[in-house]
């Protein structure tokens, strides 16, 4: 992992995920903790080299690759952990992540690897998502729902840590269908974020390159918006002839259209979540309706029956 200095008070430790480090009047806030103990150890090594003692850890959202190292950091330093309510629930009961991905049923072992199932970590302080101070550090917590239901970001001075609110084009091209538990909330978050990037000199996404210009960040945000909108369009196209289709059929059509090839259970359930949230979004906006045929749940375009 590589330590990148942003300014006199801010660093990013770049690895599988981007870890933020903020130092302010003797306090030191870490943003996200990477996937596991090994990442936690590397974070501590870097922070110690800077002569800092971590006092707080903020988890942007409870995906294993963002909070898996939290337990190690707490044990080693006793730092205080902050997260929003739903994310905190998953952190203290991490089986919830593979469990919700498998519709609440006992998840098969393929869904219980460290990318989806992290070590538990309890949260000391539940965030509302609009705090202006955390661990005595003046900052702004931003509510960024969509990728995860109660995801937050952090604005500190000229730097914005955006969690996984948007993904870089390289990552989007690799994953084809980005993970969103709420496509509609995600689009609202992205459009709001786009109007805020001009206030920052550094924009740090949860993974990938750090943006130092509003235009670069907005290009990535626009690309994420485009991908989500194209998924919504693919769902409508899959149902365009008026024939009611199952979620599985819609998922298959969307994946093909997005250029994805599904060959693993984890990939299937991650894509399925995004497609289900697209179905849910289009149902809420009155464009689709669920119907039941042959003991199957099928989706139908409204007005096309
Ligand atoms: Zn994530």
Automatic annotation (TrEMBL):
One of its GO terms (cellular component) is periplasmic space. Its cofactor is Zn(2+). Its EC number is 3.5.2.6. SMART domains: Lactamase_B. It is an enzyme of class 3 (hydrolase). GO terms for molecular function: beta-lactamase activity; zinc ion binding. One of its GO terms (biological process) is response to antibiotic. Residues 16-207 form the Metallo-beta-lactamase domain. Keywords: Antibiotic resistance, Hydrolase, Metal-binding, Periplasm, Signal, Zinc. Belongs to the metallo-beta-lactamase superfamily. Class-B beta-lactamase family. This is beta-lactamase. The lineage of its organism: Bacteria, Bacillati, Chloroflexota, Ktedonobacteria, Ktedonobacterales.
